[in-house]
Write a structure and sequence with these properties.
By secondary structure, the chain is mainly α. It is built from 13 helices and no strands.
Length: about 400
């Protein structure tokens, strides 16, 4: 291993900048190809314990275990999508009522603007007409981009299950590739990094799923009690968008307000929705996140926000969703490589905790390095010609 102290500081900074720029250029230029692959790797790591269950406990062949796991996963996602589509069709059927209520709220907003900004309705109408003309000029471009985005979505939705299947199928092949890529003296460190990445991603994704379900249920209950018509749909959307830290809940709140105002003429409903979102976020940030999400890797808010912004630039919503897992993987790598520990510390969060869930125990993926060493041993030890190696899951 190269001693980082031998190189001057300006050389190390220059090399770091070159590497960052190179990786950024590769990610930006190949984002259409790389983003589905990254998402597939995330799903593959998440689904691996289920594959092992089918393979080891139920004695399914390896390929059949992968097929059953992916079929179950796709069936759950398809059922959720079908339920959401039914709810959206109900909203479309109520389009006449929504349009009527929209004009009522528009009239109310126009009165507020007139009273507070001395802008007459005629002037407001001229501004809106100008905006409509500009919008009509761009309508064809919007339609074209929407169709292109939809076709990209269909292609990505088709490729991700295929990529996930192949990653699960060739998982051992990829591990052997990493072993051949690095010198044998680094295999122990490689063992620790790969195993910890698996533990971190599995625990993080399971925590996100539990958080998503909890936020969806709480939001649905809150919206039901304040009388929102499409409370189930909006609760599910809030839970899903909450998977994108910091930004997702803001979009969910705005969407909930817009849909709710379209279904009622009571403008006070906005305050009720804000109150529900505030209470749910209070519970989420103080219970769900510390208990289920931040139990393995703690990433500070500054790095998280910057990562989400960069993820949006590179991959849109998919990049925003992948930002935190990728940062978590990078932190695991930085913490275990000599000379990069400072970057791992930068990504971390060592602020004093005002509250800790020390007495509550939840199921977590086992992180025993001894077990990991036994499972990984077959890849880092040389074998004789007569030795038959059985790959352990």
């Amino acid at each position: 291993m190269i001693n980082s102290e031998e190189n001057p500081l300006y050389i190390k900074i220059a090399f770091s900048l070159i590497i960052i720029l190179s990786i950024g250029t590769i990610l930006y230029c190949g984002k259409e190809i790389l983003m589905p692959i990254f998402l597939s790797f995330l799903f593959a790591i998440m689904l691996q314990p289920i594959v092992v269950f089918f393979n080891k406990k139920l004695r399914f062949p390896h390929i059949l275990a992968i097929i059953f796991t992916l079929t179950l996963f796709v069936a759950i996602l398809s059922s959720l999508f079908y339920f959401v589509s039914i709810q959206v069709s109900d909203i479309i059927n109520d389009w006449t009522k929504i349009k009527t209520n929209f004009y009522v709220h528009l009239e109310y907003i126009q009165h507020l603007i007139k009273d507070n900004f001395n802008l007459s309705k005629r002037d407001q109408k001229q501004i809106l007409d100008g905006a409509k003309k500009d919008g009509m000029k761009q309508s064809s471009e919007i339609v074209g981009s929407t169709l292109l985005s939809f076709s990209d979505f269909i292609l990505t939705a088709t490729l991700i299950p295929i990529y996930t299947f192949l990653i699960l199928l060739y998982r051992i092949h990829f591990i052997k590739f990493f072993c051949k890529l690095f010198n044998s003296k680094h295999h122990t460190k490689l063992q620790e990094i790969l195993f910890e990445i698996k533990v971190v991603i599995q625990s993080y994704v399971v925590g996100l799923i539990i958080e998503m379900i909890g936020v969806s249920i709480l939001t649905t209950i809150g919206l039901y009690f304040i009388g929102i018509e499409y409370f189930i749909l909006l609760g599910i959307i809030t839970g899903v968008l909450n998977l994108i830290p910091y930004v997702g809940i803001l979009f969910a709140g705005i969407l909930t307000i817009v849909v709710s105002l379209s279904g009622t003429t009571d403008f006070a409903i906005v305050l009720y929705i804000i109150g529900v979102n505030f209470v749910v976020q209070l519970i989420d940030n103080n219970i769900f996140v510390p208990l289920f999400v931040n139990s393995k890797v703690s990433i500070n808010a500054f790095v998280s926000i910057i990562g989400i912004i960069i993820g949006n630039i590179f991959g849109g919503i998919t990049g925003m969703f992948l930002a935190i897992p990728i940062i978590a993987i990078l932190k695991v790598i930085f913490d275990r490589i000599e000379g990069l520990e400072s970057w791992g510390y930068l990504f971390g969060d060592d602020l004093p905790k005002t509250f800790e869930w020390r007495r509550i125990k939840i199921p977590m993926f086992k992180s025993d390095n001894t077990t990991s060493s036994q499972n990984f041993e077959i890849f880092i030890k040389p074998k004789t010609e007569d030795e038959n190696v059985e790959v352990s899951e």
